[in-house]
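BUG: 3D viewer hangs when loading the predicted structure for this chain

Environment: internal workstation, default settings.
Expected: structure renders.
Actual: progress bar stalls at 90%.

Input used:
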Amino acid sequence: MNNLVDDSVFDTTSTQGDLKVKTVQEYIDERPYWADGTEVPFSPMTAMQWRIWFLASAGKFFEGLVVFMTGVALPLMVREFDLSAMQKGAVSAAPLFGILIGASALGGLADLYGRKKLFIIEMILFAASLIMLVLSPNYWCLLLFMFGMGVALGCDYPTAHMVISESIPSLDRGRLVLSAFSFQAVGALVGTGIGYLILFENPQIWAWRWMYATAVMPALLVVIGRFYIPECAHWLVAKGRIKEAEEATQQLLKRNPPYPDRVVLKHIESSLDKDVKGGYLHLFKKKNIRATILASVPWFIQDLATYGIGIFTPTILATVIGAKVQHVRNVTDIINNDMLAVKGAAFIDVLLLVGILRLPPSLGPLIGPFKVESAIPVWSGWQ
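Structure tokens produced before the viewer hung:
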């Protein structure tokens, strides 16, 4: 997916009448002035910009919620559907495989059809898969709808990142993108908490269905919310739809008192579109290979620890701490093992949240951003 924040697609010097033609990002970064003529030292976020950030963060929240909730629900699924070891592994891997396919194969569709359209479709797919998962009658349906949820969440990876990056002030971009991704840890903690409460209040073999059902209504609300945001003005300009881009920018930056009073944009043909063509092969060209390795390898190690171990954390903890019923005789023993493990999993999820919110930002000023990024995989593995 192409980040269209690059200002080379705009004319930053042309004028129309007495109005200077600016880029979309220049309008977003524009700072107001106090009555005495002093410039405000930041670009205030509008209500629409915060709405977009929240709706994009919701996707990361749902990812953490359903993926880590699977670790709690898995023992109950195994019992209800009499799953073999291979089937158990397939159910656990299905949402992750779906995320891989959604992020790598479908995320780029937002460049063709628009950020908003894909932003809505992927959440509709997530909500529909979630509802069908709750009603799954057998193993194959379980596998299919787990995969469907993963595809939707994977597609949301690049789309949400672009929607945030292309809608907020430049100075706030890094902080708000990071904080949106931290909602994954919040979702993981909430998912394990919901799993524990449902098991406590309703210790039945089909309790896992209620766990996933709790996410249905929030998902539908997010679907509705995503209908009420403007299309990305950067994308509209790149497509030559200047009038629509001006209207979208005006809607994005609606304030009281209003500024800017009027938005004037102009599209210029540039080499940007040509430079980004070439797909994944461009990542492995000589000039990009170092950046590709430094960005992807730490992310791979982090996800290996977070997902590879995280999903099975309840099962691992129940065994390691030694209080697990070794020879399960009935549903009560399964519930007891699951509740015991969820407590430990929740503690680890708290560490994940602390790591995302505090460790890298607190070390950055001391040892530098590159060393912090290098330390993240080690931190994730330690967790």
